[in-house]
Amino acid sequence: MYKTQSIRLEPQDRVISFEFVGLHYIYPEANLYAYKLEGVDTRWNYTTADKRQVSYANLPRGRNLIFRVKAANSDKVWGQEEAQIKIYITPLFWEQLWFQMGASCC
Predict the structure, then answer these.
(1) Is residue 98 assigned to a domain?
(2) Domain membership flag for residue 1
(3) CATH number for the domain including 91?
(4) Average of pLDDT values for 14-24?
């Protein structure tokens, strides 16, 4: 996610995983993380430094999603910046608006 701002997946690619790390060198094993996939998660999910990976399956096609993650140091001070990446899964052709509109007029 460091340089990538968005990814576009094919219709069959509906599983995605993220692994993240916060840069706090004094006591990195005590870092905390919060993440959410907007469009799927309704709230932030919290995890510790030993569980820095998350996977999502059966993601909705044809919707814009944003994965967001932020970190806190061992003093539980949350960083001001968060990393994020936009995700779009291309819908199957029969799920696309042009197909549905064409099918409805016939």
Answers:
(1) yes
(2) no
(3) 2.60.40.10
(4) 88
pLDDT at 58: 92
Q: 62-76: b or e for each residue (b if 16 or more CB lie within 10 Å)?
A: eeebebbbbbbbeee
What whole-number distance in Å separates Cα of residue 68 and Cα of residue 35?
5
Residue type for position 72: A
Among candidates 67, 33, 29, which has minimal Cα distance to 47? 33
The more confident residue out of 12 and 67 is 67
Q: Are the beta carbons of 57 and 15 closer than 8 angstroms?
A: yes
Nearest to 31 by CA among 74, 78, 70, 79: 74
Q: Is the pLDDT of residue 83 over 80?
A: yes
- CA pair distance 91, 89, nearest whole angstrom: 6
Residue 89: Cβ within 10 Å count:
21
Cα→Cα distances 6→9, 71, 86, Å = 10, 21, 4
What is the model's pTM?
0.82
Return d(Cα 45, Cα 74) in angstroms, integer.
18
